[in-house]
């Protein structure tokens, strides 16, 4: 297909890169990008880092290439429904956009604090979009007495790092025994905990917040812990992960829930019976697809690189058909920067039953860990050693024996040990 | 069909093939990792080079085996010579070091290659290019090597390091001599080795004095920075490491950039359309330079040593063998670059090995880009109707640091 109308629902990274790939692939028809925010596509990684420290303005994050794209923009008008039989996207303002092909890239949103009235207190923030970052940066610029971060995942850690860079007191609470434990296991989590504490973070692992309390003016003042006790804070960042933006697909007959919109390897959306819809595709955070490297297990990845690669993959499938595109098999990869550490990861750690430090030494703050599952290599994480990581790409793809590489110049015989992932503790 | 000629890499090193080694590279790539008759292994496919660059079992130390007390390379042997009492193999320059030492030394050098310092060299480089061109005003014959590509990088690296201007002439001579030591052939040439060793002693003695002077009166230059800054982890750089690092920066900052500029102009003259486009639109320079780094890179290969058996594709490279990473062949791999033998600055996704890769990725890459941009944009703008006098030009001896010995141009003056 090279002409007709393609509508892209979602004007962020996956939608933009998908649209660009459509044009690059020779699509000459009408291309419409629909976005719920009034902004042109922007880059999210700086929002938790340089935007909060004031080094980059929230408005200065527009993605490169946006101006060069030949497309119609419908910004500030969220997708509100999907008429599959009528091949039309319905917008919140009542507009009906007929399409020949639809790319769904509506992404995810921050998981809100579950008590809605507490979440509405002034000074309680979440961080997902550019406006969130601008509001949080403004709140930080007012030099709050203490910031409380709920959740020690990647966003919680990055925000805490930025806040310490501003010299503000910060407390981080998380029910897990260590920061990032759910993502990287408690071994790396323990290393991170040391870094966070050395940077002056008041870290409270194994701690739950029961409720947030505000003053008469409706401004947050303190958090009450489930175990008893309180933490005084006049700014709270809720960093409890994300939920996929699929609510608008209710009633469309597609297989979608908070965990994502199911699609096949060619990015075609699946209906509730699991049949692919040849006209509707999905990419980015919202897409839940079977990953061939992990036994076809459905995964939805909140990774920057995935948004780029999957957007392009969906475009290929839209233009040339699912067979030409083949099964999407990009190796999951992400990075995070916090507390002077550059954390990079390849593969999926989920289900890892062993890990080994194969290069470097945590004592020097520079090392690389590989993760195994039943004797096979499934993932690798580098700390301040990103240049070492590509060596592990092929072994992860191939499921090479674990650990895959021995006899290295600085770590000839690594000794495996348990990574301390939550799944293991439950078992 | 697989090419089983185990002398292909020897042919690459043969000066006869210096002007156009690319057909040999194509033959080598038929077997992306191949053993040569002399026991050397050569990686010439893009994917294989990339994998080996990152592989922790591939060492840059290339220490001489016990039965051969020296590698034959004076730059390396100097550091393993027990007679030199204050330098041992622990103080080789970081290009010949592995983690964790490599990282500590490299970090300290990177700390001196600040954005501000490199940016500051941009204007200075443009002024130096202008000086070189003015000096030849009115000429109708221009030797790009002697008149610009050679003097420019030495002056730039000397100023970056903080070598007094009056000593620069000596540096030119030293740098030229020592670059020959990086070629495998030099190991078998007794005369050359003797001269290199002598040069090395002279430059090391000079550097020791200069470092002492920088400690006494630090200035805003890299050598002062290296001599006086204390790394949080590694502490202050030792004198032997400082000498080794300074010499490395001198050679690496010099011999490679000469080739980038000269190969660059040669390639543009062979592609007049591209030369005209660059003249009309100097903003194309970054694209042109990236493509030059792929198409005619200044460094064609580097040699490493395997520390363990390494499976690559369907072969396994044994432990303890010299391994050549043939970057220039990977840069022309059709499996990675569509239409690889075409010079195409508009190429997207141009992740070449022009600056190597992984841990040892060229420290001076930003500086090299600035120098090449200043030189090439000025040359295409100001040389009137340049024409190659000889094509191919005569080449210098090196197969790795490969570039013309001279590049004579007939011109109708310099604007």
UniProtKB/TrEMBL annotation, chain B:
**Pfam families cross-referenced by the UniProt entry:** p450
Gene Ontology terms for molecular function: heme binding; iron ion binding; monooxygenase activity; oxidoreductase activity, acting on paired donors, with incorporation or reduction of molecular oxygen
Known cofactor(s): heme
Which PANTHER family does the entry link to? CYTOCHROME P450 YJIB-RELATED, P450, PUTATIVE (EUROFUNG)-RELATED
Purpose of the protein? Cytochromes P450 are a group of heme-thiolate monooxygenases. They oxidize a variety of structurally unrelated compounds, including steroids, fatty acids, and xenobiotics.
Q: Per the similarity annotation, which family is this? A: Belongs to the cytochrome P450 family.
The protein's name: Cytochrome P450
Q: Which organism is it from?
A: Methylobacterium aquaticum
Q: Which gene encodes it?
A: cypX
